[in-house]
Write a structure and sequence with these properties.
Layout lengths: L37 E6 L14 H10 L4 E3 L6 E3 L2 E6 L4 E6 L13 H12 L17 H4 L14 E5 L2 E5 L21 H5 L1 H6 L7 E7 L3 E6 L13 E6 L3 H9 L5 E2 L10 H5 L3 E13 L12 H10 L3 H7 L5 E3 L9 H4 L13 H10 L8 E6 L5 H16 L5 E6 L2 H9 L7 E6 L6 H8 L13 H12 L3 H18 L2 E13 L3 E2 L15 E2 L1
Parallel strand pairs: 1-10, 14-15
Antiparallel strand pairs: 2-3, 4-5, 5-7, 6-7, 8-9, 9-10, 11-17, 12-16, 12-17, 13-17, 18-19
Length: 542
């Protein structure tokens, strides 16, 4: 909810970046075996410096998940928000919270983690002058609109809703009832920060200091980041290896080749071109399981050519021109499932998952052609689907989507792919509203709630609403759902909001993605969490 001071839910996360990953090579990490062994894994350079409130993409998020721990931690098996640094979080009205921080925690530089560590970090993240991408994650805290107004300059340095009581206690006042607000606090934006972050910001950015099971040993952009196990880490989830070396790849086919050649221990995004070979290559060392990820096509609603009255029919027609079943079967080899809504099957029916999209997500060439025409046709006659070109995964499916659209419309010029450099280049253009047509997008959940798939992406001015979609009725229903303490009623309101999104076709749902990974015979206990990120700290080197 970037810029939305009235937003009620935290926009937790990470615009999915199935991106990633440059030429590695070399040995698989060294360091021997057992608890001292080093694990090497494919990776991609983050878009931004690794400040907790300034990272909203997957590659940077992977690092933050290793070097920070917050008040809550999401269970690596279920995604449930469990207490980590929180001793207790108390409220009598779901608006005013008293948070007690556990004693005995320190940052890796020896500083104590206190209530002030959280309050200072949250105020920094919210402040307009600090220009943090995820500032509005704090938008539900009282006083946010003074430190980060929609227009003009800030009238306060800190949020009135945050108060330090003593070393281990602080209070939070929200702008409305929000019964599940504590469940959002496992997201990295809510991490504590040491005083070293504020005392010498440039030095901290060059080598971030956190309170998680790993410390950053070195980073060479375009090459690799080396993280080492922090032996004095006080948490229960201590690293079971000596460290993780994240190797940058601009092509995940190269990463896969390095894996099969014994030069890499872990690839956490098996390229589509290798899916037909992966079982034979890796056998039981291949992971393919459902994850809370959806892939979509977003539209540049900020471009007048793509935001005219009646163009919802154009977008609906384009959706019906995509043969999801054929594409997922032929390209993705059972690692994707055609989407029927804008959330994820991992939520289950009680969590809000159901077939909301209906016929608009079913391939029907004749109806697609009719709706596109009724919607005024494709602006300029040809549309481009933009995607980052630094992986082997995207070109194939983008070309397949364009072929499907072109065939349905009987026009070979209707759709073409538009590759854009690296993931960082692509995200930079997306986040600065430079897209001239549809662009690939996706979402990796931060916790298994329907809200997390809707508000961060489609609420007016939401932090990851890159297409700038806006509908007052959608916003109204989301606000009502946020204020509802009865879970089933809240889910029903979110589903009504999703129906509004469907009628607008604010984005085209493509498919749900499984988490996929392959690993070498040098490591064991490799798993993916429900968000498809490797549980790095539990990997063991044989």
């Amino acid at each position: 909810m970037r810029g939305a001071t009235h937003a009620k839910w935290a926009a937790l996360a990470t615009a999915v970046a199935l991106a990633a990953t440059a030429c590695g090579g070399g040995d698989s990490g060294g360091g021997g075996g057992g608890a001292d062994g080093i694990v090497s894994s494919s990776w991609g350079d983050p878009q931004n410096p690794l400040e907790p409130a300034n990272t909203n993409e997957v590659q940077g998020g992977k690092v933050l998940s290793m070097i920070f721990r917050g008040l809550k931690q999401y269970d690596p098996k279920t995604g449930e928000a469990k207490d980590m640094l929180a001793e207790k979080i108390e409220t009598t009205d779901s608006m005013n919270f008293t948070i007690t921080v556990k004693s005995g925690w320190t940052f890796s530089n020896g500083e104590k983690v206190t209530a002030k560590s959280f309050v200072d970090a949250w105020n920094y993240g919210a402040s307009l002058k600090n220009n943090q991408k995820n500032a509005t994650f704090f938008g539900q805290i009282a006083g946010y609109d003074q430190v980060h107004p929609d227009q003009g300059t800030a009238t306060a340095e800190t949020m009135s809703g945050l108060k330090v009581v003593n070393d281990n206690t602080f209070t939070v006042k929200l702008t409305q009832k929000f019964s599940t607000w504590p469940d959002t606090l496992g997201y990295a934006a809510f991490s504590p920060l040491p005083q070293a972050f504020f005392a010498d910001h440039a030095a901290w950015l060059s080598k971030p200091v956190g309170n998680g099971p790993y410390t950053i040993d070195s980073y060479s952009k375009g090459s690799q980041m080396a993280l080492k196990k922090w032996d004095a880490y006080p948490g229960p989830d201590k690293a079971q290896n000596g460290g993780i070396t994240l190797k940058v790849y601009t092509d995940n086919n190269t990463a896969y080749t390095d894996l099969t050649a014994g030069n890499l221990d872990l690839v956490d995004d098996v390229p589509a071109a290798q899916l037909k070979n992966v079982s034979a290559d890796l056998g039981g060392r291949y992971i393919n399981e459902p994850a809370g990820i959806i892939q979509t096509l977003s539209f540049p609603f900020y471009d007048p050519a793509w935001n005219k009255p009646g163009q919802e029919k154009l977008r609906q027609g384009l959706s019906m021109a995509i043969n999801r079943q054929q594409i997922t079967e032929t390209i993705f080899q059972k690692t994707r499932t055609p989407a029927v809504d804008w959330t994820s099957p991992v939520l289950g029916a009680d969590g809000g998952f159901k077939d909301v999209c209906g016929d608009f997500c079913k391939y029907d060439a004749a109806q697609a052609k009719k709706l596109v025409a009724e919607g005024g046709g494709i602006p300029g006659g040809t549309m481009t689907i933009s995607y980052n070109a630094d992986t082997g995964s995207h070109k194939e499916w983008v070309d397949a989507v364009c072929n499907s659209i072109n065939n349905a419309l009987g026009n070979n010029r209707a759709c073409v792919g538009n590759p854009i450099g690296t993931f960082a280049d692509f995200r930079s253009q997306v986040s600065t509203q430079k897209m001239k047509g549809p662009f690939r997008a996706g979402w990796q959940m931060d916790y298994p709630l329907i809200q997390n798939f809707l508000q961060p992406l489609y609420y007016t001015n939401a932090s990851s609403n890159d297409g700038k979609y806006s509908n007052p009725e959608f916003d109204k229903l989301v606000n009502e759902a946020n204020a509802e303490t009865d879970t089933s009623k809240a889910v029903g309101l979110f589903q009504q909001a999703e129906a509004v999104l469907r009628d607008d076709m604010g984005a085209i749902p493509l498919w749900y993605q499984n988490g996929s990974a392959g690993y070498s015979d040098r490591v064991e206990n490799v798993t993916l969490n429900p968000f498809s990120v490797p549980v790095y700290d539990q990997i063991k080197v044989k």
